[in-house]
Design brief:
single chain, about 325 residues, 2 domains, 9 strands, globular
Length: about 325
């Protein structure tokens, strides 16, 4: 592990075929920060778009604090890990390439983290929830709150947060088969070991929502099905940390992902959708008893599954009797 420089903030920015306008805004938002010791680690994750590559190279040539790393395409989680391994600052942030930091964001985050002696600081995005100005928690309190959608202020994503680099390097894990929800897994691993985390109400991160093509592609992507595996991993993380009281909530999310995955396969008709649907159907059927007993599974989902599996059972019995 490389020696970490106290006071330096490393910002890890994975890039893959990002609109040049958004990427320039993103990098400029870091370049214009008023904090003295920043390094921006841009990881070009095998971009095929020439404008993206040229934009990265142009900034790398003109700004000595920008480190450009080019890798074969391996996904955002792996790209972040590459940047994290290179980070030399005692604190680290993650930034998405079509978003941007608000002016003064880094200085504010460092001031809070230093003043509160915390392992992480969580700020808000433009769409963030209004919360009390400064709240301090132990890591496991945040871990519980991550499962509660009403506590949106804590955020599932890695962005809008400042982390202790040593602890993040210890906790960061790349999941090769999980493409959605990997941020939540990394956050969970980090907060499970964090002694203290501070949440502030400052909106220091601009999360771009005006990219409809990207949103539509994500909605259709077969990779969304990896949420099923993500929730199984979450169950292991929480179980290992003795947080059995929240396991029903995690399994409820797992069952919801199974049902959503089944419907998604039926709607989008992926190449192997019949195989996937059969697998999801088998898992749902074997879990039916636990689903009905789980108070966190919505009543409408219980009703749908009860009706569906009763109908399948009757159809099979009808076919058997006719044979």
């Amino acid at each position: 592990m490389n020696h970490l420089i106290d006071g330096r903030v490393s910002i890890v920015l994975p890039v893959y075929n990002t609109d040049e306008r958004f990427l320039s805004e993103c990098i400029e938002s870091v370049r214009m920060q008023d904090y003295g010791d920043i390094e921006l680690i841009v990881v070009d994750d095998g971009s095929t778009d020439e404008n993206t590559k040229k934009c990265c190279e142009r900034y790398a040539a003109g700004w000595e604090r920008l480190i450009l790393i080019t890798t074969p395409n391996s996904g955002v989680s792996s790209a972040r890990k590459t940047g994290l391994d290179r980070a030399s600052g005692s604190r680290v942030m993650f930034l998405d390439s079509d978003d941007r930091l608000e002016p003064g964001a880094v200085k504010r985050l460092v001031a809070v983290m230093t003043g509160q002696h915390s392992d992480a600081v969580i700020s808000q995005s433009e769409s963030g929830k209004n919360i009390p100005s400064v709240q301090k928690y132990c890591g496991k309190e945040i871990l519980r709150a991550l499962l509660d959608n009403t506590e949106a202020a804590f955020g599932w994503a890695l962005w809008a947060k400042l982390f202790d680099t040593t602890l993040m390097k210890e906790c960061y894990r790349v999941y090769s088969d999980i493409y959605y929800g990997e941020d939540l897994l990394v956050n969970a691993l980090f907060f499970a070991k964090a002694e203290s985390v501070v949440v502030i109400d400052d909106k220091l991160y601009f999360y771009r929502t005006d990219n409809p093509d990207s949103a539509m592609a994500q909605a259709r992507s077969v990779k969304k099905l990896s949420l099923i595996s993500m929730w199984k991993e979450m169950a292991e993380i929480y179980g290992e940390n003795g947080m059995t009281e929240v396991m029903d909530r995690i399994w409820a999310n797992y069952y919801d992902s199974l049902l959503s995955g089944y419907l998604q396969c039926e709607y989008y008709r992926y190449d192997n959708y019949k195989v996937l649907m059969a697998d999801f159907r088998k898992k749902l059927k074997s879990s039916l008893g636990r689903i009905m007993k789980n108070k966190y599974v919505a009543s409408k989902y219980k009703y749908l599954m009860a009706i569906y599996f009763r109908w399948v059972f009757r159809l099979k019995r009808f076919i058997t009797n006719r044979g």
